[in-house]
């Protein structure tokens, strides 16, 4: 049995020393790196071999990698590194790592071609100027062989330990038992579909009702499939913190039921939640946990894997404890430990984002991974944000005012070009919102020049902290990266603000109307498709994945993706679903809807006191409805979701839903309480949903609808833009009421449009939807004028 290791992983393990230092960042994106390597190869002679596969063995190690290029005529092997900024500012330990990689490649090449010597070169390509800096050295094959073997020896003990772990893990997983007494109704069907997707290396879309235990129903079959399918890692990706916490609880239950199972589970959290020194920069001269990080990392790594937390997991708190005991950064310790763990629990962005850690490591190491996407109905919106970029002219003005002399010229030029862009005489400059067919080359060039100058300035002044400058710098880099891949999947739009006088660039210049530029992703499919292709199998699961084609189209799922719709274990008698046909929650009718909605809620509460939730479309609507309800029915307890609610306040809101409690909680549809919360039994007995959840009709969404029509056809445009996303939120919110087969509850869908056929067919099949009318104290004409037609009213 041999242990396979990539050249880069080998060298990062054995040759990284000294400080953690992020001053020479951000590094070029993957796309920029690929383009840079291609540019270097295009400049070489005809016989140049690019992307040369090389392998070699040492004892139990099988080392593999892909050298960037080899010129047989010159006997020259090259390792290309793309960068931005001042090469002289590159930390020395970075360059040591690069030499380690090219020397290992050098020996593998000498072995393959039976060479006695070779010239090795590090080629540093500045992606801004496209200029090359080449560092060359001559090596004898014997010297390179000795170096290769020395690196392998440093890694060998760890590799042997990992082989023992993998064998023990697979043996234990092969006999792993389901950690509960029995499967719930529908859970076995889900588990079998997940297992089949892993064994057939396919993507699975699984729609399964809320409350059947989808997390264990997806995690368990993948663990069982791992040994035979040689799955290296399972990535559990969640949209929100509760989903991540639930996955960790399930994995802790698995480990508790099989105490001898050596399963390494790690939780990844955002940097700002793991950082101990948010006021310090990530380098040894600023942060004590970055100083000597790589020198202390081996001991911290070993300790973390040898002694996980009490529940057997490397969660956030456990990692923090280990990291601080060894004086290393918890965030970057977790990123290193990903390489050695079996299950990774984290946010969507760790696999799907532009520079996603897990995707990058999967490709670089050739891992066989299976991906679980929890509450997958959220992925469309989340992915759109990942592949969108926005620049605010106000931020540029702030940066210009505080920037040093070296940045004045490039920032002034960027401002002038930006101003000219919004004053283009070919467009209606008075419009508050514009969509342009193409990106402005002149602006992008000025932006690139500005980011290059900022990079030089940041490196020249490493101890100066300018948060506004750094934020604008990163936003500008992301905008440039998204510009490189601009296409039919995205929009380029300009939003103009009202005139602002405080940021005039000159005392002689009148106040300007500033603008925001946005590359707005509409269809993330082209970006996500390669991510799904990199996985051995993927499972997207949710209670609301219908209709299938909407998610398959927008997410770029493979053509052979399998669909399973798990029957609900719940009975129609458990849930009374009623559409209130004489209420409209359309924007123009909302004031008129307050009294009848309040009357309906009070009547239901009086008939059956208990805990209820009401969901509305916005905070403004929520405040008005809650105010009217409290005015009319002050004896009924209420509590409200508020804007920018922190975690403590959210916990307090949920704490009101006790089994014997009584009252009504007011929340916004699509917010923190509309999904991902579990209130079984008497903790929640009903919900009032006073909105279809449709996105607002505005210029941006209308442009998105046009882009949807271009990509998927006119007939799908409205549904893809408005209807499907809205009704998904409704069904998710309604799913809070029935959580177990013993629950009973009621749902009021308070809008006449819920009775329309195109809406009803999107509601769960097990619901038995009935229609009702509420007769308020005032005549219906006063609440809803007769001249307004239900069918013709806008959404």
Provide a short characterization of the protein structure.
By secondary structure, the chain is of the alpha/beta class. 44% of the residues lie in helices and 19% in strands. Helix 15 packs antiparallel against helix 16 (405-422) and helix 17 (441-460) crosses helix 18 (467-484).
Main sheet: strands, sense, barrel: 8 strands, parallel
Low-confidence stretches: 499-511, 776-795
Shape descriptor: globular
Helix content: 40-55%
Structural class designation: alpha/beta
Would you count the extended β strands for me?
25
Strand order of the largest sheet: 10-9-11-8-12-17-7-18
Q: State Rg.
A: 29 Å
Polypeptide structure, described:
This protein is 44% helix and 19% strand. With 795 residues, it is of the alpha/beta class. The strands form four sheets. It has an eight-stranded parallel β-sheet, with helices on both faces. The protein has a seven-stranded parallel β-sheet with strand order 21-22-20-23-24-19-25, with helices on both faces. Strands 1, 2, 3, 4, 5 and 6 form a six-stranded mixed β-sheet that branches. α4 crosses α6 (214-229), α10 (316-325) packs across α11 and α24 (699-712) packs across α25 (714-734). The radius of gyration is 29 Å and the shape is globular.
Which secondary structure elements does this structure contain, and how are they paired or packed?
Elements: E1 3-6, H1 7-15, H2 30-42, E2 49-58, E3 61-71, E4 76-83, H3 92-113, E5 117-126, E6 132-140, H4 141-174, H5 187-199, E7 203-207, H6 214-229, E8 233-238, H7 241-257, E9 265-267, H8 271-274, H9 293-306, E10 313-314, H10 316-325, H11 330-337, E11 343-347, H12 349-352, H13 357-365, E12 369-373, H14 379-386, E13 389-392, H15 393-402, H16 405-422, E14 433-436, H17 441-460, H18 467-484, E15 490-500, E16 512-521, H19 525-534, E17 537-542, H20 548-555, E18 562-565, E19 575-580, H21 590-607, E20 611-616, H22 619-632, E21 638-640, H23 647-655, E22 663-668, E23 686-689, H24 699-712, H25 714-734, E24 745-749, H26 757-760, E25 769-772, H27 780-783
Parallel strand pairs: 1-3, 4-5, 7-17, 7-18, 8-11, 8-12, 9-10, 9-11, 12-17, 19-24, 19-25, 20-22, 20-23, 21-22, 23-24
Antiparallel strand pairs: 2-3, 3-4, 5-6, 13-16, 14-15, 15-16
């Amino acid at each position: 049995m041999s242990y396979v290791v990539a050249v880069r992983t080998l060298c990062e393990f054995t040759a990284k020393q000294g400080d953690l230092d992020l001053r020479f960042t951000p590094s070029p994106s993957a796309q920029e790196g690929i383009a840079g390597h291609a540019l270097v190869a295009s400049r070489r002679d005809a016989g140049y071999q690019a992307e040369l596969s090389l392998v070699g063995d040492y004892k139990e190690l099988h080392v593999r990698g892909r050298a960037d290029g080899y010129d047989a005529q010159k006997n020259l092997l090259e390792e290309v590194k793309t960068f931005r900024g001042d090469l002289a500012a590159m930390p020395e330990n970075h360059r040591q790592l690069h030499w380690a990689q090219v020397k290992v490649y050098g020996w593998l090449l000498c072995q393959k071609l039976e060479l006695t010597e070779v010239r090795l070169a590090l080629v540093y390509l500045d992606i801004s100027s496209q200029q090359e800096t080449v560092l060359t050295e001559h090596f004898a094959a014997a010297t390179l062989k000795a170096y290769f073997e020395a690196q392998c020896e440093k890694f060998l003990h760890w590799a042997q330990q990992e082989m023992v772990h993998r064998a023990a893990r697979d043996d234990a997983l092969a006999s792993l038992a389901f950690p509960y007494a029995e499967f719930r109704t529908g859970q076995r069907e889900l588990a079998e579909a997940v297992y089949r997707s892993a064994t057939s290396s396919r993507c699975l879309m699984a729609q399964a009702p809320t409350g059947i235990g989808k997390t264990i129903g997806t995690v368990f079959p993948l663990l069982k499939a791992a040994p035979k399918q040689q799955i290296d890692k399972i990535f559990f990706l969640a949209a929100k913190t509760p989903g991540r916490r639930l996955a960790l609880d399930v994995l802790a239950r698995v480990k508790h039921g099989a105490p001898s199972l050596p399963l390494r589970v790690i939780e990844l959290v955002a940097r700002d939640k793991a950082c101990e020194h948010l006021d310090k920069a990530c380098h040894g001269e600023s942060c004590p946990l970055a100083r000597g990080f790589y020198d202390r990392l081996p001991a911290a790594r070993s300790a973390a894997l040898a002694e996980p937390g009490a529940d057997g997991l490397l969660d956030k708190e456990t990692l923090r404890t280990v990291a601080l005991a060894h004086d290393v950064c918890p965030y970057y310790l977790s990123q290193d430990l990903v390489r050695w763990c079996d299950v990774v629990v984290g946010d969507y962005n760790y696999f799907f984002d532009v520079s996603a850690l897990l995707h990058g490591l999967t490709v670089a190491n050739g891992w066989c991974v299976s991906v679980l996407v929890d509450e997958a109905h959220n992925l469309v919106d989340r992915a759109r944000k990942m592949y969108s970029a926005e620049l605010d002219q106000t931020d540029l003005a702030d940066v210009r005012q505080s920037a040093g002399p070296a940045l004045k010229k490039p920032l002034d030029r960027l401002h002038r070009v930006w101003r000219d862009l919004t004053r283009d005489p070919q467009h209606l400059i008075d419009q508050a919102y514009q969509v342009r067919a193409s990106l402005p080359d002149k602006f992008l060039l000025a932006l690139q020049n500005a980011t290059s100058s900022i990079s030089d300035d940041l490196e020249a002044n490493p101890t100066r902290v300018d948060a506004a400058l750094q934020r604008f710098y990163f936003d500008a880099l992301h905008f440039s990266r998204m510009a490189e891949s601009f296409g039919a999947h995205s929009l380029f739009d300009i939003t103009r603000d009202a005139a602002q006088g405080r940021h005039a660039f000159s005392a002689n210049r009148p106040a300007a109307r500033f603008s925001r530029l946005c590359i707005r992703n509409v269809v993330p499919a082209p970006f996500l498709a390669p991510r799904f292709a990199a996985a051995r199998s993927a499972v997207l699961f949710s209670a609301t994945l219908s209709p299938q084609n909407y998610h398959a189209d927008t997410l770029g799922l493979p053509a052979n993706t399998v669909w399973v719709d798990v029957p609900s274990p719940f009975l129609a008698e458990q849930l009374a679903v009623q559409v209130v046909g004489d209420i409209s929650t359309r924007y123009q009718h909302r004031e008129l809807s307050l009294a009848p909605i309040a009357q309906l809620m009070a009547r239901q509460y009086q008939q059956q006191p208990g805990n209820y939730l009401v969901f509305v479309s916005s905070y403004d609507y929520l405040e008005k409805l809650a105010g009217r309800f409290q005015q009319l029915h002050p004896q009924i307890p209420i509590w409200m979701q508020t804007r920018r609610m922190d975690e403590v306040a959210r916990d307090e809101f949920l704490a009101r839903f006790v089994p014997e409690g009584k009252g009504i909680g007011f929340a916004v549809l699509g917010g923190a309480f509309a999904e991902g919360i579990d209130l079984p039994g008497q903790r929640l007995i009903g919900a009032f949903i006073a909105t279809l959840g449709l996105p607002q009709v505005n210029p941006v969404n209308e442009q998105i609808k046009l882009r949807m029509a271009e990509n998927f056809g006119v007939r799908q445009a409205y549904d893809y833009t408005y209807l499907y996303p809205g009704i998904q939120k409704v069904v998710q919110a309604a799913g809070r009421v029935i959580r177990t087969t013993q629950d009973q509850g009621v749902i009021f869908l308070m809008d006449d449009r819920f009775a329309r056929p195109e809406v009803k067919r999107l509601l769960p099949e097990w619901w038995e939807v009935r229609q009702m009318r509420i007769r308020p104290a005032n005549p219906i004409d006063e609440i809803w004028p007769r001249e307004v037609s239900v069918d013709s009213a806008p959404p």
